[in-house]
Amino acid sequence: MGEKFKTGLKFTKNFFETGAFVETNRKVELEICNHIPAHENAVIVEFGMGHGNITQEILNRMSSTSKLYAFEVNPDFCAHVGQKIKDERLTIINDGAENLKEHINEKLDGAISSIPFSFFSKEKGSAIIQNVHDVLKEEAYLSQVLLTKFNFKKFQKIFDDCQLLKIQSFPTYYIYHCKM
Length: 180
Ligand SMILES: C[S@@+](CC[C@H](N)C(=O)[O-])C[C@H]1O[C@@H](n2cnc3c(N)ncnc32)[C@H](O)[C@@H]1O
Hints:
- The chain is of the alpha/beta class.
- The protein has one domain (about 5-180): Rossmann fold (3-Layer(aba) Sandwich), CATH 3.40.50.150.
- It contains 8 helices and 7 strands; from the N terminus they run αααβαβαβαβαβαββ.
- It has helices spanning about 5-15, 15-20, 25-30, 55-60, 75-85, 100-105, 120-135, 150-160; strands spanning about 45, 65-70, 90-95, 110-115, 135-145, 160-165, 175-180.
- It has a 7-stranded mixed β-sheet, with helices on both faces.
- About 40% of the residues are buried.
- The structure holds S-adenosylmethionine.
- The site of S-adenosylmethionine (SAM) has 23 residues, from helix 2 and helix 4.
């Protein structure tokens, strides 16, 4: 059974947690990572690692001295990526994005998220975005992928500079690139 097919089955089984039936595609992986800094000693977080497809692309773009902290609520997905990606720059955190500040007390050079905001309460979603805003360095980006553009306003309320991009594929994705 192919890796993508197995991932699809696991995403579907956990639909109310993943918010998706399939892993995001290559176009999304490339676009969402466009603001990942390549400089030395960057600190980056990812929310919603899933089976690690975006995680791998972030690692591809980071320098050898940088660090990636990847948050994922599903313990099976954490174990899967822990087996699949052996990279000392990656720390997997089996916890929700809402607990960012309990794990990281450094300023961030970038944040990448694919967590399903449409399934969160307004309060939970806004708190996650605000927490990232609080710890991002100036000029650093929070980039989010979603299947809808309906959550864009939540990001615009917190970040001054937000760009909305449509990815032409099936399904259609929207990427929000946000900075202060
Ligand atoms: C749409 S999937 C994206 C997975 C993968 N990054 C991709 O691009 O296909 C969303 C992922 O977020 C995880 N997730 C859901 N709520 C979360 C939260 N509060 N914090 C961290 N991860 C969460 C789900 O378990 C799932 O793996």
